[in-house]
Amino acid sequence: MIVINRHLGNRYVSFALTCLVFFGILHAIFNNIERTVPTLSPFLFPTLTVFLLVFHLFIAIFMIMKYWCDKQRVFLLAIAFAFVGSALLMAGTLSCFPTWLNPYSLHPNNYNDAMIYFMMRNIMMASLFTLSTVLFTLRHSALTRPMYGFIVGLLLIFTALMIILAWLYSSHSALLSLDLVNNDTRQSTILWTQVINIILILFWVSTLITMLVITRLRNLFWLSGCFLCVCYIITLSTLMTTDYVGGFVWYRARFFEAIATLVIIFTLLQDVFSLYRQSHLKYQQSYQNSIRDALTRLYNRSYFYESLSHSLSTTTGSKPVSVIVSDLDRFKRINDTYGHLQGDKVLQFVANLLMDSVRPQDIAARIGGEEFVLLLPNTSSEAAKQVAERIRILLASFDRETTHGELPEPITISMGVYTTTSSAVTAEECVERADKAMYEAKETGRNRVVVFS
């Protein structure tokens, strides 16, 4: 059982099983369509081609945008060229069906030219996918400008060459010709069924193996690339079962390719949402770091004053705002006796106690070395005093044993409370008055709460 689980957990086995299930479901769906629908519209094949063309253009644009965001990932350009070239060759395929564009056209459909475009498209995409996988190994290398120019030039020349060759061979050159399909009978020639089709399958198998070995299916992006390779292998293998062009098998092949391309698009969209989520989390983390004290994780001075000013703008007699300024008693002796590291632990302990002692809508901040402040919206003077007393008594009850060494000895705190019901009072005045009350607590014996009067 352990051996089975290890094999099932292997990413290659999981990938193979996923492909088997996915294409098995597609095969069953199309078999059901074939049994229930006696014939398919001749316009379905060009329509699927149009959808596929749009999908490939979308993927190409997406790859270019990703490359533009990170110029080190030059392998994305190879994939972009593959899909751009594929879209252009599918445009050539559409030109082979003049009756689809114009039902009254006198020119017959040219299935041989469509097959040539299909062949060139497979050769070009398999080659560029392989090149992209090789370029993936250079993603951490510092490529020079001439090297970038060479790679881009190579991709451009190869893609243009494949498009030009496809155009010349498809009845546009008297010197170059290739007979893959008999346009009168729609029967494939031996050259297609026994030579070219097999070569194309081997092309894609080689591309798939290269991709599996180099990328090791390390992320969803390359997983989708391998999935597309499997799609083309299955598509070409399906076409080997018939010599007739335009039948159900050809619709099945184009249907498989369209669905597989949609899967890649969904994968790319998932990548976008994943990047957005990561960016959002990083932004939130960066924002929290900007408004919080690094040591205690309480809010910092600037955020406290900003929040207090906002609360004061809506203060009324029925919505009082209370401020509690507190300072640890004889904290300098803690640093001098036990060291600053122990002093930091004391500050963190007190910060946690303050956060646990207030409501979610309250603000606990550190505004000085051992000086803390609380903002309590909609809190009367008496209620604020009760909060301060509860914190003071709770802190004084802890010692070294009860805190497992976080406090080296009992610690006390002096606290000053100020409450306002007027929006005319500034944030600085609130803190200043609470601070005066806190100093009065210090001067009258420490470890006490004083309300400003």
UniProtKB/TrEMBL annotation:
Keyword Membrane: yes
Gene Ontology CC terms, in alphabetical order: plasma membrane
Enzyme Commission code: 2.7.7.65
Domain GGDEF: 319-453
Any Pfam family matching the protein: GGDEF
PANTHER family hit by this protein: DIGUANYLATE CYCLASE DGCM-RELATED, REGULATORY COMPONENTS OF SENSORY TRANSDUCTION SYSTEM
Protein name per its UniProtKB record: diguanylate cyclase
Lineage: Bacteria, Pseudomonadati, Pseudomonadota, Gammaproteobacteria, Enterobacterales
